């Protein structure tokens, strides 16, 4: 009692001093005093939380000591409250408040204080050490009397304070009374106790935790700080909801008291609460420390308390959209009272309607949603995504207006409405999405990716609009985990850069509604902690966070511009039992503990690192240690989360279990048959109550009473790429998705129907109706049967499926049943499949670089095809197999394209081949320096028939189908990587309709307008699969494209919009305008030097063709002869080989031969510019290739890899294109500067007798790449590039 009286006197003195300070500062002392009074009342409104007790717990304090401590504590609080009220009344009187208003408020507060009954708490009858009933009744009576006296004294003080301040006493009294009613209506929380609770701490720890917090002396806040705190903690909606709940509790309590039998329970609870209070000795020691601290100065009063400097109180009265909307008016609201601030927010909401309503549900009558109105139309639009990323947990987006889930599919987020079978695609990432999280109300979604230029995008799921973009602090790494606070204000990101050294792991906190440039705070973790891949906010105080990797759990506390973290160690030897690999971590509600699940079914219990012989505060801290390890179950735990008052566990056996806070099993779900659980996500309902209503059919819980187990509906995901929706009312399970859990390479569309085949390495083959988005039929092959490719026959009656083990299955297209025994002629993976146009043949290409042909067997229903032959015509990877039609008949032609340099294109003689004897018709080398990557039959838009190919030099090439002569070389799309696969889109009228080409690069999909001419504006591309495009096909009507992502286990469906592509080409310009843009500097202006130089070379070529020394009259022309083309090319900086010169000559010479039968002998400037743009290297000369050649052919020296002079001269004559000794000598001496420019090509004299001495004196014995570039080729600009590649010497 003496200790409490001392506390009361200290508090009174501090309040008087604060009043004097506010009066000197000419502040509104009435507001200040009122705020201080309200703060004191709010402090008393907070009931102590009850503590779980174990009936078998030893070391409980004696009953008499508990009663004495309780009585002394209540009496001391009563006296302290009386003194506080008297001082508040005096302060308000000085400020001019009306005493009547103060008195009325105090009276109402006292009424509410007396109306507030404590909540009951379930206790075990076998618990030892409980006090008798009579003792409990005595303690309860003393406690109620003390509270009544305290309330009366508080009312008197409020009256005096308001009278001094000049307020109306009646109004103040009324407000205080109302506040008092709300105070006493707040009952302490109830908590079930477990008689056999696992993981109970030791006796000393229980006693320490049961003690209340020791309040330290804190500076008195100013009026502005008071109002800010009130605005952050109180909202009209929350006050109304709490008020209604309090009235219901009070009414139920009154009815129970009238019925009798409840009085003893209330008294027992009060006695139990009094056990948790500190002893007088401990309180005295704490107060002595507080009194020794000096009081704050006047200028420091506006600062927050010291304990809260790193944990600022958030403004939870505003939603994220309100905070983004009212940023400009924050400085006005800070200076307003609570009531005025609420009014301003309300007006802002009525004036600005930027936040849309929830989306309209699709119905048969109305299918348009807000997503449909926000879709950006381009030449290619993703409209559906087949598959999913099973490594990222599925999120339940279901609320009161929709049934929806969110899962990533490659770089796109998919909002799937599983009730109406609709998808909404969220596109914004350029890398695969690796993590996601959602706010508690399911509106705000955050997605993060990993890779180059990684980022985090925050979406409004009601509209599909990205509202914020956060760029990752480790650009070469990416985001591996995300978490959002329940109010959606703050976002936590975990970043990692495991692809480069040194390793960096960063945790950042973002206030994304206010600033997306810089995080609030961040911390860089030690690489020894492992890759932290999970984040969890403490739901009671989001300034505490937990993350974990497979081997380390880290706890954090953060504030403005600061973050502390602790990594408590834990090994198998600490508790003499195995720990396992960590999976996920959560915080227990209403407790300082945290739980971490492990891979062997354990739960690690973490709690505060408690010092010895010191008063313990019952508040969260990041400094935690492992308290114990609980063996929860046998199976490994993958998922650990919380919902309502339950702890939820998902394990490797496919079970979902619900435990109470004492870890007693309440209910469990099993027999889902979807594999190991990897995610559990619950729906959101604003009006959800855990009460079983009439007509509901919730399952019973595991108690003896068998009460209905009422929870929200939830969604589960598994490692087998299966998603399921569980409706708790009725316990119905619906499989939402059953997708591929391995790489997808097999992809083919039906020739006449809207069907799509998708096959993967998991052995699952599915046929989709891509218009209705429904699975028609599926089949799972035996284990080990990895599907690599597939193809329909032209009639759509059979499907050929190639496996990784070399087997080829012929299936019925409707049932997917085998038509015959599989073919097993290859020992390696089948990579390509193709049918002839009449279904008479089908061929396969395998990883052994061999082509196998099968022929249709007529008159046999059991074996539709038989083996014809097999030929290994390539020694490198086969890139394409395609069937065509002979020009003079309808007999099929078969061609294969390989990467080998010996024979690129091979044609097979199907007509003359017989069983076990597959013959070749021709083999042609179509490339000299490039590597062909894809091939297709060019559509009949020209009189000449072509085969179109692409190579690794970003070029299209057209070859005559009969002679295999290169007829055209054209610049292809340059979007990061060369074209890997091409397909000509079908059309209803192949002769008269415009034709288009679809292609894929390493990670993009694009369209090209035909005919190809090198115009860059006729092509477009966008990211299809950041991890790589494995395959591509098109629909039978040419309206859709489909791409498979390989390892990302997804297939994207793209809608083709050709009008956008045509508009893009038109805007790019006509005729030569697009090509002028590809010249350095363009055509006009000061930067157009290259074009002016080209004109000079063009006219000089006319002079050379007429003879440099000719005396006849010169004739200027717009054309030059073909013989001058190579010289002009070299003058422009392009040095073609002899083969490339021949291709250029043939391209010009035969350009009109099919039309009029004449050869072209001259070329004008416009055609020359096109020729130069299309044939020159797409990215200029590459010094890296020169360095690579010397690294391969040379030997290591002190100056780098070098080639001996004699070896180089020999290779220049014998390797590649033939060069005579005379030509080599002339070219070298000219390059070294000992001949006139141009040499014999410019009609200069050349003396071969001195060549040997010149080369011997001026060409070093060992030639490096740097010397060859600078001294021989004269490209000094390569010096810096080559020097950068040299290793740094330290």
Low-confidence stretches: 1-12, 14-71, 76-141, 153-314, 327-356, 358-369, 1286-1290
How many helices does DSSP assign?
A: 28
How many beta-strand segments?
A: 61
Give the overall pLDDT as a whole number.
Answer: 76
The description of the largest β-sheet is: 4 strands, antiparallel
Span between termini: 74 Å
Strand order of the largest sheet: 3-57-56-55
**Overall geometric form:** globular
Radius of gyration computed on alpha carbons:
41 Å
Strand content: 25-35%
Helix and strand content put the structural class at alpha+beta
Percentage of residues in helical conformation = 25-40%
Descriptors:
1290 residues; alpha+beta; four-stranded antiparallel β-sheet; 28 helices; 28% helix; disordered N terminus; disordered C terminus
What would you say this structure looks like, in words?
This protein is of the alpha+beta class and 1290 residues long. The protein contains 28 helices and 61 strands. Strands 3-57-56-55 form a four-stranded antiparallel beta sheet, with no helix packed on it. Strands 4-5-6-7 form a four-stranded antiparallel beta sheet, with no helix packed on it. A four-stranded antiparallel beta sheet has the order 8-9-10-11, with no helix packed on it. Strand 47 (932-937) and strand 48 form a beta hairpin. Helix 3 runs parallel beside helix 5 (133-164). The chain is globular.
């Amino acid at each position: 009692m003496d200790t409490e009286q001392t506390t009361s006197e200290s508090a009174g003195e501090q309040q008087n001093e604060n009043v004097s300070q506010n009066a000197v500062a000419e502040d509104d002392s009435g507001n200040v005093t009122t705020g201080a009074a309200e703060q004191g009342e709010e402090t008393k409104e907070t009931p102590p939380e009850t503590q779980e007790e174990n009936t078998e717990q030893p070391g409980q304090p004696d009953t008499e000591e508990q009663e004495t401590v309780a009585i002394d504590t209540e009496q001391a609080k009563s006296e302290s409250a009386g003194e506080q009220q008297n001082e508040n009344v005096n302060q308000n009187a000085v400020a001019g408040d009306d005493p009547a208003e103060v008195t009325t408020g105090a009276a109402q507060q006292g009424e509410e204080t007396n109306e507030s009954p404590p909540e009951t708490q379930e206790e075990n009858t076998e618990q030892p050490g409980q006090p008798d009933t009579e003792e409990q009744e005595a303690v309860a009576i003393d406690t109620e009397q003390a509270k009544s006296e305290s309330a009366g004294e508080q009312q008197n003080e409020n009256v005096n304070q308001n009278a001094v301040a000049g307020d109306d006493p009646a109004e103040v009294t009324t407000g205080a009374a109302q506040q008092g009613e709300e105070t006493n209506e707040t009952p302490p929380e109830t908590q079930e106790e477990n008689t056999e609770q696992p993981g109970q701490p030791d006796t000393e720890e229980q006693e320490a935790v049961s003690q209340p917090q020791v309040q330290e002396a804190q500076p008195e806040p100013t009026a502005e700080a008071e109002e800010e705190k009130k605005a952050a903690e109180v909202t009209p909606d929350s006050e109304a909801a709490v008020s209604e709940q309090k009235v219901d509790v009070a009414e139920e309590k009154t009815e129970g008291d009238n019925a009798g039998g409840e009085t003893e329970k209330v008294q027992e609870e009060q006695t139990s609460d009094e056990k948790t209070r500190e002893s007088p000795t401990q309180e005295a020691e704490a107060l002595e420390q507080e009194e020794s601290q000096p009081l704050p100065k006047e200028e420091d009063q506006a600062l927050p308390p010291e304990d809260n400097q790193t944990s600022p109180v958030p403004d939870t009265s505003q939603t994220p959209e309100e905070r983004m909307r009212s940023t400009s008016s924050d400085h006005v609201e800070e200076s307003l009272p609570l009531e005025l601030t609420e009014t301003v927010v309300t007006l802002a909401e009525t004036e600005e309607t930027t936040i849309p309503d929830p989306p309209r549900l699709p119905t048969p009558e109305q299918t348009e949603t807000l997503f449909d109105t926000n879709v950006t139309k381009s030449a290619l639009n993703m409209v559906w995504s087949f598959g999913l990323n099973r490594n990222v947990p599925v999120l339940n987006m279901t609320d009161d207006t929709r049934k929806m889930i969110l899962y990533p599919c490659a770089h796109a987020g998919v909002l799937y409405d599983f009730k109406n079978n609709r998808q909404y695609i969220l596109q914004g990432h350029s890398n695969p999405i690796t993590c996601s999280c959602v706010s508690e109300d399911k509106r705000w979604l955050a997605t993060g990716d990993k890779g180059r230029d990684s980022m985090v995008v925050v979406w409004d799921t009601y509209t599909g609009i990205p509202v914020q973009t956060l760029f990752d602090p480790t650009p070469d790494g990416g985001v591996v985990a995300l978490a959002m606070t329940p109010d959606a204000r703050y976002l936590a990101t975990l970043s990692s850069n495991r692809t480069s050294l040194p390793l960096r792991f960063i945790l950042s906190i973002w206030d994304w509604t206010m600033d997306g440039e810089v995080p609030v705070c961040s911390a860089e973790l030690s690489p020894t902690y492992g890759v932290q891949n999970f984040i969890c906010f403490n739901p009671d105080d989001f300034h505490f966070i937990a993350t974990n990797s497979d081997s380390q759990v880290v706890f954090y506390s953060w504030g403005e511009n600061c973050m502390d973290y602790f990594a408590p160690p834990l090994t198998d030897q600490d508790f003499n039992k195995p720990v396992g690999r960590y999976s996920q971590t959560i915080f227990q509600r209403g407790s300082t503990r945290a739980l971490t699940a492990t891979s062997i079914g354990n739960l690690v219990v973490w709690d505060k690192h408690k010092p010895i012989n010191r008063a313990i505060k019952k508040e969260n801290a990041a400094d935690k240690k492992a308290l114990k390890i609980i063996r929860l179950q046998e199976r490994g735990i993958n998922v650990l989360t919380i919902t309502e008052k339950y702890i939820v566990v998902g394990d490797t056996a496919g079970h979902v279990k619900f435990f109470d806070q004492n870890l007693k099993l309440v209910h469990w779900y099993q027999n889902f048959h979807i594999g190991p659980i990897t995610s559990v996500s619950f729906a959101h309902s604003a009006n959800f109550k855990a009460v079983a209503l009439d007509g509901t059919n919730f399952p019973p819980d595991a108690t003896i009473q068998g009460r209905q187990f009422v929870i929200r509906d939830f969604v589960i995901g598994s490692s087998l790429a299966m998603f399921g929706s569980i409706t708790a009312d009725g316990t119905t399970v619906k499989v939402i998705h059953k997708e591929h859990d391995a790489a997808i390479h097999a992809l083919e569309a039906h020739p006449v129907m809207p069907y799509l085949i998708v096959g993967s390495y998991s052995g699952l083959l599915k046929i989709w109706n891509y218009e209705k988005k429904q699975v028609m039929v599926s089949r799972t092959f035996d284990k080990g049967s990895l599907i690599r490719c597939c193809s329909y026959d032209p009639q759509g009656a059979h499907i050929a499926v190639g496996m990784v083990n070399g087997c080829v299955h012929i299936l019925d297209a409707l049932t997917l049943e085998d038509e015959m025994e599989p073919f097993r002629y290859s020992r390696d993976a089948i990579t390509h499949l193709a049918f002839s146009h009449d279904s008479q043949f089908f061929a396969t290409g395998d990883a052994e670089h061999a082509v196998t042909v099968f022929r249709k067997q007529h008159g046999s229903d059991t074996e539709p095809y038989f083996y014809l032959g097999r030929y290994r015509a390539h020694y490198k990877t086969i890139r394409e197999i395609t069937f065509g039609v002979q020009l003079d008949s309808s007999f099929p032609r078969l061609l294969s394209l390989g990467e080998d340099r010996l024979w690129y294109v091979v044609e097979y003689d199907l007509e003359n081949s017989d069983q076990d004897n597959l013959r070749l018709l021709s083999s042609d080398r179509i490339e000299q320096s490039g590597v062909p990557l894809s091939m297709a039959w060019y559509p009949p838009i020209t009189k000449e028939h072509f085969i179109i190919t692409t190579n690794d030099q970003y070029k299209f090439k057209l070859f005559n189908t009969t002679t295999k002569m290169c007829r055209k070389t054209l610049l292809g799309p340059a979007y990061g990587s060369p074209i890997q696969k091409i397909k000509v889109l079908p059309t209803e009228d192949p002769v008269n309709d415009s034709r288009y080409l679809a292609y894929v690069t390493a990670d993009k999909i694009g369209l090209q307008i035909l005919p190809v001419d090198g115009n860059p504006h006729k092509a477009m591309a966008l990211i299809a699969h950041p991890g790589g495009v494995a395959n591509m096909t098109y629909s039978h009507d040419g309206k859709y494209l489909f791409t498979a992502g390989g390892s990302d286990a997804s297939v994207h469906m793209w809608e083709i919009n050709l009008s956008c592509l045509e508009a893009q080409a038109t805007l790019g310009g006509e005729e030569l305008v697009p090509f002028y843009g590809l010249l350095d500097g363009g055509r006009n202006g000061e930067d157009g030097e290259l074009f002016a130089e080209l004109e000079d070379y063009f006219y000089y070529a006319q002079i050379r063709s007429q003879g440099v020394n000719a005396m006849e009259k010169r004739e200027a022309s717009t054309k030059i002869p073909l013989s001058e083309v190579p010289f002009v090319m070299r003058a422009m900086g392009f040095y073609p080989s002899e083969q490339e010169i021949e291709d250029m000559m043939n391209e010009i010479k035969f350009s009109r031969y099919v039309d009029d039968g004449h050869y072209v002998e001259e070329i004008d400037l416009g055609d020359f510019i096109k020729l130069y743009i299309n044939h020159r290297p797409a990215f200029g000369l590459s010094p890296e290739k020169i360095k690579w050649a010397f690294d391969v052919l040379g030997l290591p020296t002190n100056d780098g890899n070098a080639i001996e002079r004699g070896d180089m001269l020999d290779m220049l004559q014998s390797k590649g294109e033939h060069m005579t000794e005379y030509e080599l000598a002339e070219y070298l001496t000219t390059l070294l500067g000992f001949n006139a420019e141009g040499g014999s090509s410019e009609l200069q004299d050349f003396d071969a007798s001195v060549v040997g001495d010149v080369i011997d004196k001026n060409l070093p014995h060992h030639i490096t790449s740097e010397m060859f570039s600078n001294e021989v080729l004269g490209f000094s600009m390569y010096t810096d590039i080559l020097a950068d590649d040299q290793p740094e010497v330290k």
